[in-house]
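Q: Hi! First time doing this. I have a protein sequence and I read that you can turn it into a structure. Is that right? Here it is:
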Amino acid sequence: MAQVLGAIAGATLVWLYFLPHWSVTPEADLKRACFCTSPAIRRPASNLLCEIIGTFVLVLVVSAISPKPWRPAAGGGSGPVPCGEPGMGHRSELGGTTGYAINPARDLGPRIAHALLPVAGKGGSDWPYAAVPVAGPLLGGALAGLFARLAQF
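A: Yes, that's right. Below is the predicted 3D structure, encoded as structure tokens:
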């Protein structure tokens, strides 16, 4: 819940930042893109699979390089900066198909803000698609966590 509220606050700052632009930008889909993800090709099952795979790979990599309670930090593992680096490259590699939410709050919070904020000519918030960037990362993260636990890395 804290992440969703933080994402709503961040999206509100985006709305304020671009305030003069909303009324002169005619494309509603471009306005929505400032807030939430949207697929390049709308195929819900395929889009869900992309989110699951992308999040699975990211969580697995971060899990493999993070310190573990059973492994001292000096014997392996990294801090927050090296754990963030895979996410940056990973997003640019796999993000083209769905916008790559990889965190339900990253899409849901800004989508809620888009629905509530008075963005001029904004169009709809595309709620029928919202389940994909929420369910995909939850499933991918859970599967990666289970796999990492079973593989013990």
